[in-house]
Design brief:
elongated, ten-stranded mixed sheet, 2 domains, 15% strand, alpha+beta
Length: 321
């Protein structure tokens, strides 16, 4: 990348989906990817056991392979695999490593990949086509030097590729690109909009809950006026009455909050199961929900509780529904 300071790292890829793999135990048909050693630095490829490809594998065109998690399970069924041999379209390869799971939910295509040196791939399994050169690639993936901003890197990459292949770098149709940074920003904007919307719904819901708590407690105070009068006549202080109704308001709010949390967790689990994506329930979010519910209960329970505490005991004893 010395000629392109705008690019931090770049790696070439050649993959094919029509190659069949056979081990001593089973066969599979995962995607075989010819990659360079720095592929694991550009893309997320965590090694579970063994190692990834290195410079010697590339330079010597070694017939070695690193298996994705699903490919390893399909080909070896839990048997030891490091140092074992598989064939890819009848060509023998030695297994040197296994990758951890890098897929989400039911989309396990990445877990079914097999990684071989790019030079070996070009030598044995070059791209098909009459006018396709043997050193052709499927894609070049790169990372910009400026994190989160690929603008300068795109311009530089377009300029270099266009110069080497003799076309105008301004031709948009000449490039088939997938910008993960822009995609991440778009998804982030969608989630930000959802956060604002759901936040607004939450505020409205809290407002309705607050109104409900006030109404329920005011009705409770009215229905229990004689009880309050009797308690005061027997020596209960205004603070005792106030505390009693605040506790009831708090309990009511906490019950509603607990039901809401259980409903939210259940709904999240159902949705994630339906779409095949994992979910994670944050304890701080649950605690925050319960705390907000308790705060609403106490804050909006003060008025009914104070009204109950200030009742005149004589008038309360004379009250009839």
């Amino acid at each position: 990348m010395r000629a392109l300071p705008q690019v931090r790292a770049a790696t070439a890829i050649l993959n094919r989906n029509d190659l069949y793999q056979v081990s001593a135990y089973a066969n599979a048909s995962g995607t075989v990817c010819g990659v360079e050693p720095n592929f694991s630095a550009v893309r997320f490829v965590p090694i579970a056991e063994g190692r990834f490809l290195n410079d010697q594998d590339l330079a010597e065109r070694r017939r070695v392979v690193v298996l994705g998690l699903k490919s390893a399970q399909l080909l070896f069924h839990g048997h030891p695999m490091l140092g074992e041999t598989i064939t890819i379209n009848d060509v023998s390869f030695t297994v040197i490593g296994r990758v951890q799971s890098i897929s989400r939910g039911n989309n396990d295509n990445d877990n079914q990949r097999l990684y071989v040196p790019l030079t070996t791939m070009q030598e044995l399994f070059a791209m098909k086509g009459g006018n396709v050169p043997r050193d052709a690639l499927v894609s070049i993936q790169y990372q910009p030097a400026i994190k989160g901003d690929a603008t300068a890197a795109k311009v530089a990459v377009h300029r270099v590729i266009a110069a080497r292949h003799g076309f105008d770098p301004s031709l948009k149709d000449a490039f088939d690109e997938w910008d993960t940074i822009e995609e991440e920003k778009m998804i982030g904007a969608i989630f930000d909009a959802m956060d604002v919307f759901l936040g607004g719904v939450g505020i409205v819901t809290l407002g309705l809950g607050a109104v409900g708590i006030i109404n329920i407690m005011l009705v409770s105070v009215t229905e229990r006026t004689r009880e309050i009068g009797i308690r005061k006549a027997m020596g209960a202080r205004s603070n005792d009455i106030l505390l009693q109704f605040l506790i009831e308001s708090l309990a009511l709010a906490l019950l509603g909050g607990a039901i809401g949390v259980l409903f939210g967790i259940s709904f999240a689990k159902v949705v994630t199961l339906a779409i095949g994506m994992p979910s994670e329930i944050k304890l701080w979010a649950v605690a925050a929900g319960v705390l907000v519910a308790a705060s609403v209960g106490i804050f909006f329970g003060v008025y009914p509780a104070r009204r109950a505490a200030l009742l005149d005991p004589i008038a309360a004893l004379r009250f009839e529904m």
